[in-house]
Amino acid sequence: MFGGSFDPPHRGHIALARLAIERLGLDRVLLAPVGLQPLKRDRPQASFADRLAMTRLAIEGEPGLELSLVDAPHANGMPNYTIDTVRSLRASLAPADQLFCLMGADSFLSIGKWYRAGDLLVACDFVVASRPGFDLGRIASALPPSISVAACDGDGGDNLVLCLRGGGRRESRLYLLPDLEEMASASGIRGSLQHGDASRTELAPAVADYIREHRLYKGAGDS
Q1: DSSP letter for each residue of 109-152
Q2: pLDDT over 50 (residue 2)
Q3: Which of 58-83 are b and which e, b meaning 16 or more Cβ less than 10 Å from the residue's Cβ?
Q4: pTM of the model
Q5: What structural domains does the chain harbor?
């Protein structure tokens, strides 16, 4: 599962998903736009429907990438908590299926502030991707106090792997992918789009067209 605002989805998101598929041999990556993130003060600038449509366009023709509604807005307006989303997704899978939570390193650095972070980190395995040169020591330091980290037994292939242990002998694996070459920032893209640049190379052409057609991310002074 690859969750996030996808406001808008860009080539960095696709590169991260591709890297995870390539390095871990995943059958599929579910891109799940989030309804309401509890840690972000500001709501996404684009509606959930628009973010869903843009994500669908961004992954069109991409093998192994699927759009998911598992993190859609709640009818009662409550925030989406990843621990609940992971457990809901797990319940829909076969017992033998392996579930990973995929994210970029910058997002993972705030994991200690997430709702029930200790439970979340042992509810499934994690895949964390970073750009070359990122200090991977920051990943371990971001873990909440209830989680201990150690080297893993067994073969992690060419991947850097950490074992996370929580209470009740629960444990998971955290796979570190330190070679994500694609660099893009949704906030930087939104800033440029507010000034009329809707042809950013970080966006798939279909996504850029959708933004133009629906006049998304326009500045307050734009007509």
Answers
A1: TTGGGSTTHHHHTTTSEEEEE--TT--THHHHHTS-TT-EEEEP
A2: yes
A3: bbeeeeebebbebbebeeeeeebbbb
A4: 0.91
A5: 2-214 (3.40.50.620)
